[in-house]
Amino acid sequence: MATHQPDGAYGGGNSGGGGSAVFGKQILMLALIVVAGILVYNTFMSGDGLGSIFGGGGKEMRLTYVPSDFQPNLDEGATLKILSDPEKYHKEFDELVYNFNLSLLYHVANRMGLADSLKRRLEPEYKKHHEYLASLYFNDFVSLKDTTASMYETWYNDNSNYAVQVFNEVAGKYTCFFVTEIMATLIKADGGKLMAKGKKVNTPCGIAIEEGLRPMIDRLQKKAAIYDFSASRGFLKEKVRMGIAELATYELRSRLGIDKTLQYKLLGFSISETNIQVEAISVIKAGFKLDRYFDVTFNPGKGIVFVTLPQPTIVSHEVYPRVDKLDVGFLAGINGEEMNANFNELRRQFRQDAIENEHILDKAKMRADSVMQLIMGPTVKSMGRNYKLQVRFQDSPDVMDDMEMRRRAQQPANKPPSLPSPEPVKVDN
First and final CA of the chain: distance in angstroms? Predict the structure, then answer.
């Protein structure tokens, strides 16, 4: 009987070895899939990136928050002077922003207990951001604070105080951004993960706002109240004589009113009311301060006489308030400070409406050409029949002819983007 069997036929006791080999391959394949899945998760889902795979980015940084006093090292009197007239002290304003923001960063670093090696990198890192931050601070500050109204603000005891309020609003827009950006850069370079403990643990943004910016603003406002009171009282015995060279080219007259009711409540019920109605007429003149800049040049090749004027501004603003109704309740009265604040707010509304809605500065530019043609046109024509006069403006290289002026006067005024003030993030101890 033949005992030989073809290859691949049933082998009896040798079948167990083949099944074990197949099962082992399946286990190995499953293990490889699991390992690959872990690697993919760590790489793309955990947030540590490739560095965590090789141990380069997964290291924790443990910080112990320590007490620290904010010391901005700023002269409060000089700071108020700069904020009251930023255009006059533009360079000093930039230095103020630089020193104040750097002080905030050092305070945050001290509170977080950062190593000296990281603190030494604060100023170089901030310098990367300062140029555009200083420009944002200045442009926003000037657009929010009407710098042509300093005299009126002083009269109403509100010039320095209002300047501090505007600075607080502007700084509130950008403080969280640059503090968080710089601190994240330093901490990320040293590890990636942050574990913090200690008293009053907070985010870098929260520390900068609550422990740095807010207390500094409070101190400045207390100082500003003294400055404003002294300056306003000085008006009573001050007589200013000065030569001016102004060219008013556009006048706007408008009328606004305040209708306000003050209530005195007891247990949620109104038991006394004070009604006040105030109307005012405003006369605003926009034009050019020729003592700041005025230039006349001649281009023989083109036969053009160029008259260069400074940028337009409000050269005068007169407000005539009238109290139409003052019904004072027996409990709810109104004091002089509230009346002055209402008058000053009414004045601000006049100016804001004139600049933003009536575009008074653009219209002053448009009228400037007609006035210059009236004043200097005959002189230019006497030089030759083909000679003509064209008006342009400082820091604006383009020549403004009649059509261009009318086109720009009809365009809405440019406004800076409105950014919400950041809210500090609260972290439980």
Answer: 91
